[in-house]
Amino acid sequence: MLFARNKTMHWEPPQILRILDAGCASYTFPMLDNGYVYLAATRMSLFRFEEDWAMVLEVFGFSPRSGLPDTHIHTFASKLYNRDKAENYVSQDAYQSYLSNNLYNDSRFVHPVEDGPWIDEDSSEDVAESGEVTVRGQSVRLPPKSEYAAHGIELGGERPAIFEFCRFLADIARDEVLASPPERRISVLPEMRQILQLEHWHHPDVVAEELPSEVELFRQLAQVLATGDVDFYKPTERPNTHGSNWPEGGTL
Q1: pTM (2 d.p.)
Q2: Fewer CB in 10 Å around end: N or C, the chain?
Q3: What span, in angstroms and rounded, lies between the C-alpha atoms of 54 and 225?
Q4: Chain mean position to CA 109
């Protein structure tokens, strides 16, 4: 346990940073160069109510092991809401272990992109030559190869890969592939209000053992969460959340 917490405790920035740093040690804080996930898009949202706070980080990408693109919703909070249900665990002991090992963090997945013939039947990591994909109930045509370059995507092979198509989707349908407002708040107390949303920021190099507490941006956000004053957010470091900054992602 990081520290005891009671209902009247006032959260200080070092305590918030300690929770985020602990997420790196337990592999629950997002690694943007996760070797198992090709990064396509990210978003961060901060929530607050009285003394309680929450930070939500969304990561849309593709893991060949999963088979379909997904959006991973990471929540760090002073109090978590709507915890996973006991019946989803093999035993009560397993459920209690989940709760005790994740006091201040939760992890959920949503799948904005539906399965279908848009995935090449002969190569499960490539898209078909033509067709449509359903994203949040809406049809999106598969673009010709020539269209990727216009969105800053350099293809690595003869056929567009699924992760490259995910980056295309992130450019043309960002809100659809990232979490919806209710999904974003799945582990956030209902009474909390959103006080800040970031589309781009400077993220720590978690694989290289850099911690959130060592990054200017996260030290500022800890101040915002502790006080509710968004004026503490004054970043000077260049954002690095674009997939091009994390070339090792998905390569394992």
Answers
A1: 0.94
A2: N
A3: 8
A4: 9
Tokens representing 92 are: 């009560």
Question: How many Cβ atoms are within 10 Å of 61's Cβ, its own excluded?
Answer: 27
Contact assessment for residue 107 and residue 28, using Cβ atoms and an 8 Å cutoff? yes
Sign of CA dihedral 241, 243, 244, 248: positive
DSSP letter string, 92-129? HHHHHHHHHH-SSEEEEEE--B--STTB-TT-TTBB-S
Per-residue pLDDT tens over the stretch 48-73: 999 999 999 999 999 999 999 999 99
Which DSSP state fits 137? T
CA distances from 141 to 69, 130, 171 (A): 16, 8, 14
Provide the 3-class DSSP secondary structure of residue 239.
coil
Task: Write out the two tokens for 252.
Answer: 């394992």
Write the single-letter amino acid at 41.
Answer: A
> How far apart, in whole angstroms, are the C-alpha atoms of residue 192 and residue 97?
27
- 210's CB contacts (< 8 A; 6+ apart) are 204
Distance from C-alpha of 21 to C-alpha of 151, rounded to nearest angstrom: 34
Q: What is the helix (H) or strand (E) element at residue 168, kind and residue range?
A: helix 162-172
